Structures
1.
Amino acid sequence: MNKASRMANASWETINLKALKRLPVYTLPPTYELQRDMGNCCAGDPPGYPTYFTRPQAMHVIETSDLRGATWEAHQARRDALMRRLWLPLPLEHPRTQAWIADRFKHLHSCYLNPALSGREQWDKMVFYPVPKWKLESFVDDLRFSEEWRTKEKAQVELKNSEIIANAANIASDYNHAAVVCIREYYPEFQPTRDQIDGKVETVGNWWEVMAVRPTPETCPGQHGTAHPVNGSWCQMCGYKIKAETKEEA
């Protein structure tokens, strides 16, 4: 399959075509060339969101018109408002929506957002719980100093780590879970399950981004110019796992 395959298999059921047709037409300069594959700044967005259909050149036009010299927040707000107008959300219980929800919990497992922060800072200062070892302080010994110094330094490290863990535990409520925050941005009625919070979810590829139904291995179009199975032993597009199938057949 070539790069046009994913675009050719895309479903437009989530795009508000009336709103889309009201947008101004952009004339591409003769020295420009459009990216052939679609998808731009779309990572983590819900199924069928307009960002999965756009190309960098189109997004540049959308984001820069009438906003010269504006802040990043202003650009983002205008972009988000337009994407929402162009989007026709699928129901929360729809298979594509449920596949996206599983993907969010898998990708953001053990990730929490501090409600005292907002915007980019909230994501830049993401909290992990349980706290991984690389986020904790470590005692660094120095043979030049006494055992008394070691005892004191170790106590300070333990105190600091207990504070880090306590702070993370305080933030790590179900509704501060990064996946829950992300999902509720589009589906405010969403209620997480214990298994979802604990990361006990199964993902099925990323076909749900633009395709109406999950393809079979025989009908999978592949992705970004790579034929099925995209990752060799498993397919990122349809979620098919070759090794698992081989074991079942054996």
Note: Residues 244-250 have pLDDT under 50 and may be disordered.
2.
Amino acid sequence: MNTAKALVPSLPDLRLKDLIDRFDLLLRSKCEIESRGVPTQFWSDFFTAPGNVQKNVVDQISDYLAILEDASRQGITLLNDKRLAWFAVGKLQLVPPSGFLDTIEPDDYLEIYNASGIQIFRNLEFYRIVSYSIAEITFYPWDRLYRRDEHILQQIMEQGFVKGFSGVKEPYPLTIDEHIVSEAISSEGRSYHIKFGMLSPLIGRSKKTEAVFATSKLKRIK
């Protein structure tokens, strides 16, 4: 067993730690949101993941951070600003449907998911309520991060992913029951009440739906 090699951080590990530090600085300096640590279990899971998975996580966080830093440089505020959603979609080289910005209401939580169920963008209001780090949110799929009743999971899959990636072109309301969602793998185990809003398919360079944009309203209850 090559113990020495296992203890030496790889290049993706070192780059990821730098990205996490930069993101936490942005949270504190631009949004006055407390930074959060990355649990040991994440590093264990990340270190044992295939190299292509590690690279994908690093690239996604790098792209996300670049969007936020670029938006800030261009005078877009990082909280309570619809322009950030439009800017992010463009930077991800995705095309939203007409009326996209009209689907966003004040105080909405905004998320973009790819076809693998990985959240590739969320507005920073999200970090006011969740305890997860950016590393966990990017690495783990949504159905591992959060605990819900089984019928809610089925509704999310059918309305959010099956329908969202079916080729539908226009935004549509998510008729998912209001419910309580709990963090499944965090040390704090926070819980929130969630009411879903609208879903918009996002078209990529393949001319097919490559991601979906969802709005919701969250209220922490624990």
Note: Strands lie at 109-114, 119-122, 146-147, 172-173, 179-183, 191-203, 209-220.
3.
Amino acid sequence: MSLAEKIRASRKLEIKVGEAVYFARRPTFEEFGTWLRDKLTDPEIARRYVTGWQNVRAKDLFQDGTDDLIEFDQEVWNEAVGDMPDTWKAVVDRIVTATNDYHKSAQANSKNSRAGSNLKRSVKS
């Protein structure tokens, strides 16, 4: 596994909602910072960061759905999530918590690093 793949893997999240499990990724600090600027809604955040699911049935996605398990499809997720407030809330809460936890950890690691070991960007006039 390459270093880039390890970094991406470190952002993976699992969110359980009832019997369903949604797979998502934690946004980077850069992405997280754009949420307010872009005025993203919770369903839009869920659309952007959910990458798969397990144990999702048609009835989880729409009112007249069956008990049939549904394979993840991004287009189906994008369409369905707007009518799934309990799910989008659980997904976004977990993404925000994971991002906050990561930020706290990064701050602690920065404070605990050896003096002089942090690279500083210099600005030339």
Note: The radius of gyration is 18 Å.
